[in-house]
Amino acid sequence: MSVHSMRQRVQGIARDPAYRQGVQAVLATMLGIAAWGLVTGVAMVKSGMSVPLAIFMSLIVYAGSAQLAVLPLMVVGAPLWVVWFTAICVNLRFVILSSMWRHYFSHLRRAHRLALGYFSGDVIFVAFSQRFSTPEKTPEQLPFFWGAATVNWLSWQIASIAGILLAHAIPLEWGLGFAGVLALLGVLYSMLKDAATWMACVVACGAAVAAFALPLKLNILVAIAAAVTAGLLMEAAERRAQRLRLRPQPAIRPPDPARGEKHPVMPLHGHADTKEPR
Fold it and tell me: How far apart are CA 90 and CA 67, in angstroms?
């Protein structure tokens, strides 16, 4: 695709009414996202990272939870495999999100899908799933995604880079970390829609607290593994229960006086139930 055609494509998406709908869908969460980005930017510099490297990490990684998870490990000099494994585990949710995006955007070119993967985020997923609850491709889905993604990316990067540049001027007493936690709690609560996600959340909280004494923040990995396991088991149990509910049940027939029956009878599975007297 040429630069001219790409520019026309971008302009067409930006002019689409669904683009503005995507922008409006995530505006309410942008203050919390900005607070979390500011906290992450400050934390990167406070941990000893240089300003250029911190800006590079903010633009390339673009994953606040993973950045905050690996920073303490980098400070204490944890092995590189522990840092990478922690970041991968924290970002495993994006593998789950990508399976959802596939239903909507699998027809796009690989380069476009890679761009969607980079700009994807928790807030965008929540807004998109609320707007498009069924996995059916429609023309307004792509502009809606890019509208939400543009606002989310700008809010995060502007706040994160501001935190990086102003890290030494922002005192920790401002309590920005607590504001960021509140922002994530709001996003988390909006994603708790069924019993499986609630179960995973409760198990993750319990596992994180129970394993808090582990070194190198390994309680985060324990919580993630426990939550994924609990969620998968819960979903499997729900699917099995649904199959049992949908399984046809033998009809209860009225009693047959000729057989001496006085109450309704349910035929036994695997046995013929004739009405001829024995």
Answer: 10
